[in-house]
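hey m, so remember when u said the tokens were messed up on ur end? i reran from scratch. heres the input so u can diff it against urs
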Amino acid sequence: MKFKVNSYHFKLLRDYERLSAFKEAIDEYAIRNCEDSNGSNSKVAFDLGCGSGVLSYFASRYMDKVIAIELNNSTYQLAKENLKEFDNIQVFNDDILIFDFSKLNEKADLIICEMLDTALIDEEEVPVLNRARKFLKANGEIIPKGMINSAEAVFMNNHFIQYEDDEYSPIYIALGESVVYSEFDFMEDIDCDFSAEMELKIFDRDDLDKFGFEENLSQEKYAKFNFKENFNIEEDKLKINGIKLTSFTKLNDDLICGPTPMLNPVMLIPMEETEVRFGDSVRIRLEYVMGGGVETIKTEILEIVHND
């Protein structure tokens, strides 16, 4: 099937890893819930933030009815055109946060909501699901099922928030182990005001030697910005000035998708530049409002624990 899309949604459709992950999750849901249906148990899906309508299209094969909702009017027009031949799909141009679900006179067996962003910061996945979950049947399911977020200490060239994807590669070097700092189940109500304290372990000398830290610093991309001047290798001293966030989308119990070009790309967040020693642990507080945008991000270094 050919989809009419704008330039942004063209990139979304071109991200085959992202599409295949959601299609696999929808197919798996159908295998468990829809294939034995004899028509007496009508299945309803909500596709929230439906975009160009591709996930509604995937779901329409299995569901008796798909309710697709899109806020942006021009994108809604594209979805409406793309899905016009499907009698079991109804497309609405509305804000999900105020949409009158009661007028549908039915609840959803399945909610599909791909309003994801790294660490759930910039898009409205959480506030949307907090509201829409009230209109999910008691035995209903949500795709995706949840998210896992991890962080690691880095030193980066530019001191502003950056994303790493196929089109842009920020200059940074990882200086510590990745630590899971939050996990969310989208079937549960989630507080949008997020705050977490985490302890980030800085690499010791053996770790740095394993991946050739000093040799890596000689690479042109690091040498160009004098990265080596920020580290005193002989005295076991490093500097950190940011954290790298990586999000893993839990589509279902058996399917987890890491960052793809258009799904939760790696995010770099600046913080106060601080000197650390090999093997130290750094306690950090990270705060943001889910769905509130990157301007709500706050970081604070609470303590540096030395590895004596």
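this time it looks ok to me. DSSP finds eight helices and 15 strands in the chain. if urs says something different then somethings off w ur setup not the seq
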